[in-house]
Design brief:
Dehydroquinate synthase-like, alpha domain; alpha/beta; 2 domains; two-stranded antiparallel sheet; globular; binds nicotinamide-adenine-dinucleotide; binds zinc ion; Rossmann fold; 13 helices
């Protein structure tokens, strides 16, 4: 059965439709208004898997496929999109359908925000992370050689169409990485979501898992659309996670590093007397259950800490942590002692 969630955004609102089989069954264009030409922007991997279905679902659309991978989330790839959009006759009345994970969604969203000063955008997220996180909230953009997501815009979609059946082809490692963000959403706002994960939600439960996880993101971005305050709660596990990801030389995927980062945030919260050891164990248990690591192997705590500090310098701010004083009780801590951070990082050494 289709679920429809409503998102209020500045000056507009849009729906998120969640329905298993939505993409295979129907004409996708029935789900949004479009007065002009359609372009589907996807990547070559998804084109190989879903190209035939895409042509059936949106027969009139121009299909633009870019290379796969974060390495291609660049202005050069967006320039390729613009060129194909001009050649394909897209004008101001056109609609861009972003069909892919967060990389495609962010880039196609940026192209839609800027092409002819902005055309309509429909998000069709295909990875678990993009379904519960990146396709909602309006942040779009690309990386620069100097750092990730340094160029971007806010661009609200007309609609977000989520078909959990698309997850059947998602590699297991990517699925686990998406689960890291879902655990994060559960920890900051929704204990029932954590119960669903514990019950090892199978594909039939995916729609419910996604619905609850998306609802957390909706609630946060509605309260803080331009990231001035509580949207920072979505960074739970990410101050540690980003640094661990970088210190590993990206051998650890983002979601894997975030899994470890969630354990780190729990350990730090316990160390500061905000939660007891039982909740730390619960976070470890959940992270392990979804197939993610809880420790950072041989990475040196000092090296990880240096990455945290250099990240902070780039953002010209203080080292800030999102901590927990309980499930669904996130708190921002700005003045954490270096020794406490290093002690937590030391506890994360080893494997498991
Ligand atoms: N805009 C935001 O608010 C926001 C939030 C979080 C993350 N992000 C961004 O999202 C990106 C990460 O997104 P991601 O984790 O989806 O990565 P991704 O887009 O690279 O997708 C991961 C991999 O899975 C493949 N894939 C996706 N769906 C598939 C499917 N159904 N079947 C088979 N393969 C599939 C992709 O081709 C890719 O190889 C990062 O660039 C990050 O900065 C943005
Ligand atoms: Zn993340």
């Amino acid at each position: 059965m289709a679920e429809r969630l409503r998102v209020a955004a500045p000056d507009t609102h849009y729906d998120i439709v969640i329905e298993a089989g939505l993409f295979a069954g129907a004409n996708l264009a029935d789900h949004f208004r479009s007065d002009g030409r359609l372009a589907v922007i996807t990547n070559v991997t998804l084109q190989r898997l879903y190209g035939d279905l895409l042509r059936l679902a949106l027969p009139e659309a121009l299909i633009i496929a870019v290379p796969d991978g974060e390495a291609h989330k660049t202005l050069a790839t967006v320039a390729q999109m613009y060129a194909e959009m001009v050649d394909g006759g897209l004008d101001r009345q056109s609609t861009v359908v972003a069909f892919g994970g967060g990389v495609v969604g962010d880039m196609a969203g940026f192209a839609a925000a800027t092409y002819m000063r902005g055309v309509s955008l429909v998000q069709v997220p295909t990875s678990l992370l993009s379904m519960v996180d990146s396709s909602v909230g309006g942040k779009v953009g690309v990386d620069l050689p100097q750092g990730k997501n340094l160029v971007g815009a806010f661009k609200q979609p007309e609609v977000v169409l989520i078909d959990p059946a698309l997850l059947a082809t998602l590699p297991a490692r990517e699925r686990a990485c998406g689960m890291a963000e879902i655990i994060k959403h559960g920890l900051i706002a929704d204990p029932i979501l954590l119960d669903l994960i514990s019950r090892r939600a199978s594909l039939e439960h995916d729609a419910e898992l996604i619905r609850r996880a998306v609802q957390v993101k909706i609630d946060v971005v509605q309260q803080d659309p331009y990231e001035q305050g509580i949207r920072a709660y979505l960074n739970l596990g990410h101050t540690f996670g980003h640094a661990i990801e970088q210190a590993s030389g990206y051998a650890l995927a983002h979601g894997e590093a975030v899994g470890i980062g969630l354990v780190a945030a729990a350990l730090l919260s316990a160390r500061l007397g905000m939660i007891d050891a039982g909740l730390v164990d619960e976070v470890r248990r959940l992270v392990t259950l979804v197939g993610l690591p809880t420790r950072m192997g041989a990475l040196d705590p000092e090296v990880v800490y240096d990455f945290m500090r250099s990240d902070k310098k780039k953002k010209a701010g203080k080292l800030r942590f999102v901590l927990l004083s309980g499930i669904a009780q996130p708190q921002i801590a700005a003045d954490v002692d270096v020794q406490d951070v290093l002690a937590v990082l030391t506890e994360l050494r080893g494997h498991g």
